[in-house]
Amino acid sequence: MKWMIIIVIMMSLIGSMMWVMPTPRQKYQAALRMKAKQMGFLVQLERLKAPRAKGEMEPESRDMTAYRIIREGLSREEKNNFKTWQVFRIESISDIGLPSGWSWSEGERTLSEKQLDKLAQVISKLPAGVFSLESTPIHVGVYWDEEGGDEALAEIKALLDGFVVERF
Length: 168
Known about the structure:
- The protein has helices at 2-20, 24-39, 76-80, 113-125, 149-166; strands at residues 42-49, 61-70, 85-88, 103-106, 130-135, 139-144.
- By secondary structure, it is of the alpha+beta class.
- It has one domain (23-166).
């Protein structure tokens, strides 16, 4: 009987330790986020409210991971005149100038034709897990499901760096 009690207690302790251990998905996310930080990303978890999709009564809200690159070197005048925008991978009525399946949350009709063409090129190259793309005077970033690993992260970095260089 003593051995049975000892075995039950040991199994309980081992079970508790296993419950505290991170899952393989959590280990993957931690490694990816550390790599992103080393590449210059600011990684944040946020609640994202998408625009209302066609046929929906309420807009969708998701908890997503934002991968952002901080803008540096903008003058005060450039910051004041900056055209902030955000697009989502969702069908809605605000889709002027965007590829099919994408819509505006902010900044519709503020970008030039050249900027819209560049945005369409970037959207076509984004990994499938990117749900939103945003640009402000402070940062440029994506909301991403973190699928695709280091290759997708490097691709996102290269695409976002283009927005930083072109200052839009």
